[in-house]
Each structure stands twice: as C-alpha cells, then as structure tokens.
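Q: How would the structure tokens look for this protein?
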Amino acid sequence: MFMTASLRLLLAAVLCAGTLLASPASASAASASAALASAALASPALGDDDEPATALELLEPHGLETFPSLTVEALQIFLELEGAYGRGEYAECRRRLDAFWEAHPPASAAWRPSSAPDSPVFVGSPPCYYALRMLDECIDWRLAEARAEAEHEPEDGAESTTREVRLTVVLVGRGKGLEPRSWKDLERGKGKRRTARLAPELLADDHAVIRESLALFTEYVAAMTAGRLRVVTTIEHLAKLEVPLAVRAEERRHAGLGESATPLIWSALDAGTQAATDWWWVLYPSAVPEQHEDFETTEFITGGMGVGPDGLSPCFLVDDRWLLRKPPHLGQGAYTSIERRAYLPQWLQHEFFHHLFRTWPGFALEAEGHQWFDRSKWPRDFEGTYEPDYYREALHRRLRTQAEPPLHIALRYRRAGPEVWARIDVGEIAGRYVHDPTENEWHVGEIVVEGRGKRARMRWTNTAGVAWSLEPDLAAGLLRCGPDSPYADDPRAGSTDFTLVLARDAEGDWLPRVTGFRFLGDLYVRQR
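A: Here is the predicted structure in token form.
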C-alpha cells in the first residue's frame, strides 16, 4: 500500500501540531494515517542542522506517496522511540512499541523485504525492522534494570558488575592499487594505478558519522549482556599509513584491502593500543570503481567480519564509503543522519553475529554460511521469519542461557594488565599442554624450566621429540619462541610466540594463573 496525498497532509499537520494519538490495529490507508499521527516525538538529527529530523522531512522531497505505508510508519516509530529512549522514557517506549507491534506483528508477511536499488532513501530491509528489534531488546533491558534497582537498593561501596569492552576504530589514511575502468579491465586484473585517501567526512565533527553508526549497536550490546558489558569507543587515525587495495572479479566481486594490508595495519598500532583493545573496526579508503559507467550498478563486497591482531578478537572491516552513501544495490545518493542511524546498526549486528556463531560453534547456528536465510535450516525451536528474528532466537535460546564461557566473559579480549603478570612466577608455567582435538604428536607437549633466577631458561618439547627454546616475556603475556623453532620463519602472524592464556573469575577479570597458550591460532590447554 502506498501513501495518499491526503495522508501526506494529515501527517504534516500532526507533526507540526505535536499531537500524540494511539496506534491502530490494521494496515488500511485510514489506519496508517492514524499510526503516523502518533509521530509527535521525533528525535533530532545528530548531524548538520539542515538534516531532516522526521519521516516526513526525509521522505517528502522524494514523493511521500511513492513509499509503502509500512516504510513510513516504521521509520517514524523508530525516530519517535530513538528520541524517547534518549530521554530515558523507557516505559513510554515500551507502550508505543507494543502498540506498533500489535499493528504490525514481528515476523509477519507484512515485513517481507523488498529490493529497491533505485530508492533515494534506505533505512534497512525490511525498513527499520532490524533497528526496531534491537531497540526492543534495549527497552526490555532498561526496564528490567530499573525494576532490579527498585527492588534491591545497592549497598554502599558495592562493586559494579559492569565491565568495559574497548572498541578501537582504526582509520587508514591511504590506499593504493589498480582501479579497473571497465569489465574488461576487471576480468583481466588490469586498471589504472591510483591512490585513494580516507574520506574527510569520517573525521568531521569529532567523527560524528562513526558515532552515529555505532550508537544503537553499542547500546544493543549492553542489552544483550544484561548490562554486564559497556562498549567504549576510541578512534585511531593512521593518517600516514598506506596499504594495498585490490579489486577482484570473483563469483561475488570484491573491492577492498589487499592481502598484505592487515599486517601493515596491526604493525602501525602501538603495543599499548593492541593490549587495551577488545574489538576492532577498520575503515579504509574505498576501492569501489563505481564512478565508471560499467560499475554504476555493480555490487562489490568491501568488508565483513575478520579477526584482530591476536587472531581471536572480532574485527569489523569495511570501506569509508559504506558509512557515507548507499551502494548501488541498496539505493542512490548520500546517507542522511537518519538513514545512517537506522541502517548501519543492521550491518554491525549482522557481522557481530558471524563472530558470535564462530565463537560458540557447538550451537551449529552457522554450520553453513548465512544459513538463517533458509528458513528450513533454522533450529526446530526457533520462531520467526527474518534474519533479526533468528538473531533474537539465538540470543535468548542459546547464547544467553547456554554459552560457556558466558557472553560477558568470552567477549572480553584485551590482555591482562602488568599488575596481573607481575604476580606470576615463571616456574608456575611449567607443565603438560594438549591441543584439543589431539590429531598428532605435535599437539601434546611439555614446558620445562631449566635453571633458576636470571639464568632460568624454558623449553618446549612435544611427543614427536621436537623441542625448541622459549624466552618468557610476561609483560607482553608471551613465551617467545627461539631461533631454533621449526616455525621461526613462518610468515603467519603470531606464529613465533606462545600467547599465554590466564584463568578468569566469575566476572571475567583475569587471575594470575596460566591455563594454556595459543599457538598458530590454536589453543593448548594445561593438563597439569
């Protein structure tokens, strides 16, 4: 159903008057007008003063009647809730969203995604559905938190159970590579060599574009963990760093970082930043050749979910244009602040759940890539229809209730501080360590300490009879493999070190007790 001219006028009148009406229970044109009339509380845009602040202001210039009524209603309730949530009006948010869900039930056919590559406005597909599902979780958490505080007055001096996870956003200054100008160039791996620079919009207004993109997602992470984790964002601008870019003609075309780019990025970051970071987001200059006629409507894969320098922590990867404009397969033109706030959390959520599913593979929630796109491959106890329904079910039926270690512990990746390592004696690291699963004699071995004091030396010997020296560097949480290691010249990142793994307490804080080490990306668990 599409918006009528009379409905457009009614919406304009309601928004100007600031009247708040009840939401309807049907999807007719008349009921749609009543639902939209509830849009008095619209959040202001976070960016430029000229940015639209309501659904009407955003959609009207493109012909309000060309948008399905659900698109307009979903966008306006999102803005309404965003504003009320920011003011701490959680009970009011719950009331409004419940009324909206009654009119448009989650997982119903009304939310079936539609592709509109020529659309001048994009707020997610289905429109705002991911964002509203995330807000739903956030509202529930805030209300539960308020009830708990009212029922249990915290004791003076009681320690908070909330822990910080630090997301470091890395901005890469420059990229260089071959830019294909035609399909022929792309297929032959040819093109014109060019240098791309990071879009200055990502730096403007204290990185407002980045912060807008993250706002709902980081709040959602807190809700996922019932307030046990709080995401703190820092931004590292590597202005002078230049990395290789590559455009490849694969089954799904890629335009992004070249093969040697990520080692260059990690090496450009100081040890302190690496040690203090739990999660990463790398943003780099775009290599998408969309300015050439052959690629004006071509979709290129520019990022996804990778791993940080430790080989474990989540690392979002994408180019700078992803935050600034609608790529050809999603629409046309630059994003407004509203579009960014409504859609970018959807992308972040999608990539984050890739990480969650690989972290707990035993749940088999992504035994096949993107299996949630095929409803027949959902677990039998899962309800819903669409991707965010799958995420909600995964969170409530598996990750919150069955994950070991729990979310609020396993999602903290920063290294233990020097005060923890100072309490560990080198001799306490000696013992037998086993790789799980044990597939060969190299997967079982023993660390022994030879000598005492400053003359103490360490040695690793596996059951295949291969041994090499280890140099303890506890300040970095490492046992550095000596030049006699058979992996001394291995090009894989981290292959020359044993990264020590410590025990954690009930809140996930580090304890001065070694429980294993990671080597070549695999975990070796201490047996004795």
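Residues 129-151 form the longest helix (23 residues).

The first strand starts at residue 163 and ends at 179.

Upvote if useful.
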